[in-house]
Design brief:
The protein is mainly alpha-helical. It has 22 helices and no strands. Part of the tripartite ATP-independent periplasmic (TRAP) transport system.
């Protein structure tokens, strides 16, 4: 067997074994990369160290800690709550209204933080107790909130798009634009699915609030609604880059929390910074470990090996995309979104490009698959967040998320059949 073939076995087998024993994903990537280096007779501790540093030595990756910080500031400074209050004022009285509130708030918050975990935690903390008091079935409510939370990686600004763009050298601005229409369609799909679910639920309608109260709630959310306008408008007009947009988002959220809403004291800022730093450390360590594995994957020419296996499909881009999406769905059930991007995007993108698939379109589909993996067992990171906040057994949340998981699967099929849904807005915005 050639050294390249043996390296492939080491990579796949090593990841399965190390993940199976519960090892930290970043450490598993480093050890797997080191094993591949040994098999390829390319062992050099200095080279491994250089790749570890190189994995995080990127200006574009500076967006990650600032987007994480922006999400923490939104939750601590009352921005997230005001968005939910506004949505409730307008649609909370409708039968099943809190479900529509969850969907609307999820779409709005997705345009600010780009973090599925942060948005889901905020929505679940505020809405699940309200839904419980009003007689909503908690498993279904938790499933809806979890499904709304994964819109965050799709609608810009998106932290996974930043990681994907850095990993594959794809335009982050174009990736951001590509997520606008699919993200909105995800929200529309959830509305349709929730309407169908409501047929089996006996939920009363409430009394609509006076227009004065609705306008007052909207006015309180004004500064929150201004945030995505500044971020998207600034990037579209060329005032700042996606990385700089993350900094603007963090400082804007800080200013609103401290000076406008005044719901966060300066003394509380330390706790916010510590939480953001811990999350950032996890993501950055993953990026560093993935760079080691990615470098060895390139040396072993694993993309070339996969191209050989998928060779007959290269002539049929839609079929190739469908096969890749099935593979990514299976991968997404075992890996979180960030490691999925870091490990598989550099391997799969060259094959997609060879088949004539647009790199930005492929990036959107890749991240969307990974986002769906966040609500797919057994890993289902977002499912675990909702289960923890709502103090529900995980199997109940899994049961509740199934109708919305089917909706997202249908959307994936739609995007495969009609890629213009993604590519046309990107071409128009350019």
């Amino acid at each position: 067997m050639s050294s390249e073939g043996l390296a492939f076995i080491v990579f796949c087998g090593g990841m399965l074994v190390l993940m199976g024993i519960g090892m930290n994903m970043a450490l598993a990537l480093v050890l797997t990369g080191a094993g591949m280096a040994w098999v390829l007779e390319f062992w050099d501790t200095q080279l491994l160290a250089q790749n570890l540093v190189g994995g995080v030595d990127s200006f574009a990756l500076l967006a990650v800690p600032f987007f994480i910080l922006a999400g923490e500031l939104m939750n601590s400074g009352g921005i997230s709550r005001r968005i939910i209050d506004m949505a409730q004022a307008w649609v909370g009285h409708i039968r099943g209204g809190l479900g529509y509130v969850a969907i609307g708030a999820a779409v709005l918050m997705a345009s600010m933080s780009g973090s599925a975990l942060a948005d889901t935690a905020a929505l679940a903390t505020i809405l699940l107790p309200m839904m419980k008091r009003q007689g909503y079935p908690l498993p279904t409510s938790a499933g809806l909130i979890a499904s709304g939370g994964i819109i965050a990686p799709i609608i810009p600004p998106s932290m996974p798009f930043v990681i994907y763009g850095v990993t594959t050298n794809t335009s982050i601005s174009a990736l951001f634009i590509s997520g606008i229409v699919p993200g909105i369609l995800m929200g529309v799909g959830l509305i349709v699915a929730w309407k169908l679910v409501l047929r089996k639920l006996d939920l009363p309608a409430g009394e609509p609030l006076p227009m004065r109260e609705r306008l007052r709630a909207t006015g309180k959310a004004f500064w929150a609604l201004l945030m995505p306008v500044i971020i998207i408008g600034g990037m579209k007009s060329g005032v700042f880059t996606p990385t700089e947009a993350a900094v603007v988002a963090a400082f804007y959220a800080l200013a609103v929390a401290l000076l406008v809403h005044r719901e966060m004291r300066v003394a509380e800022l330390r706790g916010v910074l510590v939480r953001a730093a811990k999350t950032t450390a996890i993501v950055m360590f993953l990026c560093a470990g993935a760079q080691v594995a990615s470098y060895m994957i390139t040396l072993a020419d694993l993309p070339g090996v996969l191209t050989g296996w998928l060779g007959p499909l290269v002539e049929n881009p839609r079929l190739l995309m469908a096969v890749m999406m099935v593979v990514l769905v299976l991968v997404g059930t075992a890996l979180d979104l960030t490691p999925t991007i870091l490990i598989f995007a550099p391997v799969m993108l060259p094959i997609a490009v060879k088949a004539g698939i647009d790199p930005v379109y492929f990036g959107l589909m890749f991240v969307l698959n990974g986002a769906i993996g966040l609500i797919t067992p057994p890993v289902g990171t977002v499912l675990n967040v909702v289960a923890g906040v709502g103090r529900l057994p995980l199997h109940q949340v899994i049961k509740g998320v199934n109708p919305f998981l089917i909706t997202y699967t249908l959307l994936l099929v739609l995007f495969v059949i009609f890629p213009q849904i993604v590519t046309a807005p990107v071409a128009w915005m350019r």
